[in-house]
Amino acid sequence: MAVPDDVAGTPCPACGTPNPPGRRFCRRCAAVLNPEEKPPPLPWWRTVWPFRRRARASSGRVARLLVILAVVAALCAGGFLLLPAGRALIEDTRDKLGKPKPITPVSVEASDEVPGHPARNTTDGLSNRYWGASAEGASVTYTFRRPFRLVDLLITNGASASAQPYARQARALELELEVTTQDGTRHTKKLTLGDKPGPQPVPTGISDVKTVRLVLRSPTGLAPGRHLALAEVEFFQRS
Question: Is the pTM of this model over 0.85?
Fold first, then answer.
């Protein structure tokens, strides 16, 4: 059956046949008479990966959320590294990755010395010579030429690293450690030592160290005719 062409209306976008108002499909070719308008073109930055890979309208929101989360994570990481805890974590990691090397103080001063047993004996590298102090509370201070990162201490308590000479004199089972940095900041720590001969390691991890002071506490074996003995104190810096 022929389709009359004397109908007034909007022409079909496909074949040009006029169609009465209200029709959705062309009466001749069945094409859609009012196709939806095409969306406007995306801005250039939406055409760059990963924004161009979009299958749904919500994918743009997902991509923006991922970008925001990445920025927040970067800011949090940067802030953490600026905090003291973050800086300490980095320094401790560097301490573990490097190999500590010894450093010797330029001066050693003690508040009390038994004749024949000066405080400088604690840095002479010989564990059979010691610093002797007459009473609890005596202190020794080590000063260094330049600031450095103090990684570890190695303390040989008593009169010697050998068992028999070790037991001949009294020992301090606790030490008060006071470290002063270049800017005047003081770090204090109580050290507990085992009552045994031989070196005992003490981890520290303090930067810009200028002086180290040790105070003898909690003596054992102290009696008339005997004194407190400290054989060796070794300092190690980060290489």
Answer: no
